[in-house]
Specification:
412 residues; Alpha-D-Glucose-1,6-Bisphosphate, Chain A, domain 4; elongated
Length: 412
C-alpha cells in the first residue's frame, strides 16, 4: 500500500474463453473509494466511477472539520461554508488529474510504446449526477412536506412540463420517455421525472432529508459534447433543473396573497400613463390565462405569444383561430402592466415574475380546489351534496338564519 493512495484489489469478468473487463477497486487519498474498469478488447475503453460525496468527506477529514455522514450525503457539518467550497472545487481539472494519476499506476491495455506513439485515453462524460440534499431539523414535518409535494407535482412528467424543466422542445418525433412515476417501496415513495435519457428523482432520504437529484446519461440531450471540458455547463444544467423544481414546489405550498395584492390584481391599473384592465378572479378568460401561465413557471428562457396562446385556447376549449393573436397580445399587456410577467429585453419573449408565479398558482388552486368543488357540493343536483360536510353546514346556517327571522317576526 502506497503512502498517498492504494489499489485495494481487482477482478476479472470472463465469459467462456474471452476476458471481457478488468475491474480495479481503489481507495484514493483525496477521492476515497472508486473503481476503474478496462475493456479487454479493442479499442480498450476504460471507465472511471467516482462519488463527489466521498471526495467531500475525504477533504473534510483532512482539514479536521467535524461532520455527520448521511448515507450518500452529509447531514451536518461544523463548517458549512468550507463544505460548499470543497464541493465547488470538484472541477474538470481535478477529475482529469485523478484519472491520469491512476492510468499511470495501473496496468492498462496500451503499452509504453503505444503511449509513446500517441495512443492515449481521452476523458469524456458517460454519466453525471447532480443532487441537492436538504436536511430537516424536524423530520416529521419534512415527511409531511414531501407527501404534499407528491400530491402537488404528479403532473410534472407531462410532455409540456418536462420540456419546461429541461428547457427543451418536445415533438412527436422526439425519442425517449416523458413521464412522472410514483414509485413506492415499502412505505418510502419517490418521484421520478423522465426526459429522454435524463432523469430527476426526488425522495425523502433516511426519514430526515429531502433529496433531489438529476442524473444526465447523455450530454447530447442538452446540445453538449461528451468531453470533460463540458462539465461546468452540464453542472449548471443539472443544478438549475433541481433548483427550478424545488422553487415551484416551494411556491405551490405557500402561494397565499396579501389582501392588497389580491385587490390590486382584481382592479384596473394605470402604469406610466398606460391603463390596463383588471384580472378579476373567477372570470373564465382570466382563470384559463393564469392556469396556462402555470405551465411556464419552470421555463428559464421565457415564452412567446404563440406558445401561451395555444395553451389558453386548449384550456378554454375553443379552436385556436377563435383566440386570435390580437387577443393574446391584449392579455399579455394586462399581465405585464400588473407586474405578473416582464418582457425580456431585445426579444419577443416574456418571463414570469416571482409575483406572477404566486398569483398564477394561488388563483388556479383556489378556483380548482375550493371554488369549483365547493359550489358543486352546494348545488342541489349534486348526488353527494346531502352527505357533504360543507352542504350540511350551509343548510344548518340557512335553518338558523330562518329561525332568527321568524323570531324577529320578519319571516314571510
Amino acid at each position: 500500500m502506497m503512502s498517498c493512495s492504494a489499489a485495494q484489489g481487482g477482478s476479472l469478468h470472463i465469459i467462456g474463453d474471452f476476458t471481457l473487463h478488468y475491474y480495479f477497486y481503489v481507495v484514493d487519498a483525496d477521492f476515497g473509494p472508486l473503481f476503474i474498469k478496462f475493456s479487454g478488447y479493442f479499442p480498450y475503453t476504460a471507465r472511471l466511477c467516482l462519488n463527489g460525496q466521498e471526495y467531500a468527506k475525504r477533504q473534510l477529514r483532512q482539514a479536521g472539520i467535524a461532520f455527520e455522514a448521511l448515507d450518500n450525503g452529509i447531514a451536518s457539518c461544523a463548517d458549512p461554508q468550507r463544505l460548499q467550497q470543497v464541493n465547488d472545487g470538484l472541477d474538470a481539472a481535478r477529475i482529469e488529474a485523478l484519472t491520469r494519476k491512476w492510468l499511470a499506476r495501473l496496468p492498462q491495455p496500451f503499452t509504453a510504446a503505444d503511449r509513446a506513439a500517441g495512443f492515449a485515453y481521452g476523458i469524456s462524460i458517460l454519466q453525471a449526477e447532480f443532487a441537492r440534499t436538504q436536511v430537516f431539523d424536524r423530520p416529521l414535518s419534512g415527511r409531511h412536506l414531501f407527501e404534499e409535494i407528491i400530491r402537488e407535482n404528479l403532473d410534472l412528467g407531462r410532455p409540456d412540463q418536462v420540456s419546461l424543466i429541461f428547457d427543451r422542445h418536445i415533438t412527436r418525433r422526439t425519442p425517449g420517455r416523458f413521464r412522472t412515476r410514483l414509485i413506492t417501496r415499502g412505505v418510502t415513495p419517490s418521484l421520478h421525472i423522465d426526459y429522454k435519457s435524463t432523469r430527476i428523482k426526488q425522495y425523502f432520504k433516511e426519514e430526515r432529508a429531502l433529496r433531489t437529484e438529476t442524473t444526465i446519461n447523455d450530454t447530447r440531450d442538452f446540445g453538449l459534447g461528451r468531453r470533460l471540458c463540458n462539465l461546468p455547463a452540464l453542472r449548471a444544467i443539472g443544478c438549475a433543473a433541481n433548483r427550478r423544481v424545488l422553487e415551484v414546489e416551494h411556491i405551490s405550498q405557500d402561494c397565499q396573497l396579501a389582501e392588497a395584492v389580491f385587490e390590486q390584481v382584481n382592479s384596473p391599473c394605470l402604469i406610466d400613463g398606460q391603463r390596463a384592465a383588471a384580472l378579476p378572479f373567477g372570470n373564465a378568460r382570466v382563470m384559463t390565462l393564469l392556469q396556462a401561465l402555470c405551465l411556464f413557471v419552470l421555463l428559464p428562457e421565457g415564452f412567446r405569444n404563440a406558445a401561451l396562446r395555444g395553451h389558453v385556447a386548449a384550456l378554454r376549449g375553443v379552436p385556436l383561430e377563435d383566440y386570435s393573436p390580437g387577443r393574446m397580445t391584449y392579455d399579455l399587456r394586462r399581465l405585464r402592466l400588473h407586474g405578473l410577467i416582464t418582457r425580456i429585453p431585445q426579444t419577443q419573449r416574456y418571463e414570469i415574475t416571482p409575483l406572477g408565479k404566486r398569483v398564477a398558482l394561488f388563483f388556479t388552486k383556489l378556483n380548482a380546489r375550493v371554488l369549483r368543488p365547493g359550489l358543486s357540493q352546494l348545488f342541489d343536483g349534486c348526488p353527494k351534496a346531502p352527505d357533504c360536510p360543507l352542504a350540511k353546514a350551509i343548510q344548518a346556517l340557512d335553518n338558523a338564519f330562518e329561525g332568527l327571522l321568524a323570531e324577529a317576526k320578519l319571516a314571510a
